[in-house]
Amino acid sequence: MTKKDEKFIIPDEMRALVLNGTGFEHLQVRTIPTPRPGPGQMLARVDAAGICTSLIKLVEQGSHHQFVYDWDLERWPLILGDEGVVTLVEVGSDLQKTYHPGERYVIQPAIDHAPINHLERYRNGGRGIHKVAISYTLGGHLAEYILIPEEVLAAGCLLPLPTPNLPYSHAAIAEPISCAVSAQEHHMHLIQNDGLVERSVLKGLKPDGVTVIVGAGAMGRLNVELALSYHPRVVIVADYIEERLELVKHLFAARAAQLGVNMVTLSPGKADLKTFIDEQSEYHGADDVIIAVGARSAIEGAMDYIGQGAVLNLFGGLKKGDEMVDFNTQTIHYKSINVTGSSGGSPWDIARTLELMDSGQIDPSVHITRIGDLEHSIELLKMVKAQQIDGKAVVYPHRRTSEIKTVQTWTAVDEQAYLSKQG
Q1: Are 250 and 146 contained in the same domain?
Q2: CA distances (Å), origin 272, targets 15, 238, 266, 278, 305
Q3: pLDDT digits over 169-205, tens only?
């Protein structure tokens, strides 16, 4: 942790991942002028940044992306990167009583606020636009420095780290973890133990209940780890890929046992999921179902094993053109099923994620599988697109290294050793 009010040397130029058109051929790491903050803005050093799947859609759609609002990317290129952790290095004159160089923050990239800066670059001069985003019309984290503009502060999207000792890489993936926090916060159970008593609302996964998570990929595993903190009686993780199920057991079995949660895994290709859930739930069905994979069959199949008063969470998005699914409306009607979903999170979800990291209820180290530098960003994005990375990739913009590092876990000790040397 740098000391408050420490003086930083800010270079005239910086390296950044820049998109100036549509497609990967318009994506490159460039040396560009380092932005300088106005009176109501701040400049921050990017200490680490995550590689997000959503960037692929941005690259492939360019100015037609819904959050780019028809910007001319050739005239005004974008700096990508919606996940990261930063240290303030320069504070605008209007903010110096509130913020200080050396303070560390995570930015919630989805900014629920109308654009303030560069209105001439937006469609219709920004009229009718109520949401902007880091990595889209606001500069992103895949750069050595990031400008924190008025929109971020106005929307309350600058979240302080709860402890100065939180590793850069862990804080950098707070945003994707916060998506799971948000998703499970959307679970609402109506409780009425006595028919003459008003119903109450139980938020989150049902304690001592049966939780089913379909999909054990990177986001599925985030949901598994977070689900344990609600103390369900049983967590069932289903996936066709055996290696993913083995990884779930390796990562979370000990913690589940410590918490008194019976965590079990199942490949639907080898055993019937409904029969298995019936046995584990004493034929009551699942209380919480999270579909963490983009598959219609997984969503539709949940109708067979979901229980009375349960919650079905459509966490995994379906591709455009394949988004329509068939629901058994009688199941929803007679079992009083709540169907929910969420996309991204709020500033609170980021703050809660940082608290969970700090308290040890979430271990970010087990979700990081690739380490690199800024020059590796394009290759890492292509690997994500080709589904060659099962986990999170993190880059350190101020460190230069010769190759991408593959890791099983990435702890604070690993990071300290890595940053202490170059090459």
Answers
A1: no
A2: 52, 11, 9, 10, 11
A3: 999 999 999 999 999 999 999 998 888 999 999 999 9
Question: Do 226 and 157 share a structural domain?
Answer: no
Q: How many CB atoms lie within 10 A of CB 279?
A: 9
H or E stretch at 200:
strand 200-203
Burial of 48 from C-beta contacts in 10 A (0-12 / 13-18 / 19+) = buried
pLDDT in tens, 370-409: 999 999 999 999 999 999 999 999 999 999 998 999 999 9
Q: How far apart are CA 338 and CA 8, in angstroms?
A: 52
Judge whether residue 3 has pLDDT over 60: no
Per-residue exposure over 183-211, b if at least 16 CB sit within 10 Å of its own CB, e if not: bbbebebeeeeeeeeeeeeeebbbeebbb
For helices 54-61 and 377-385, the axis angle rounded to 10 degrees is: 100
CATH number of the domain within which 103 lies: 3.90.180.10
Are residues 223 and 301 located together in one domain of the fold?
Answer: yes
pTM value is 0.92
* Angstrom distances, CA of residue 421 to CA of 46, 121, 220, 399, 416: 18, 42, 34, 9, 9
Do 172 and 48 share a domain, yes or no?
Answer: yes
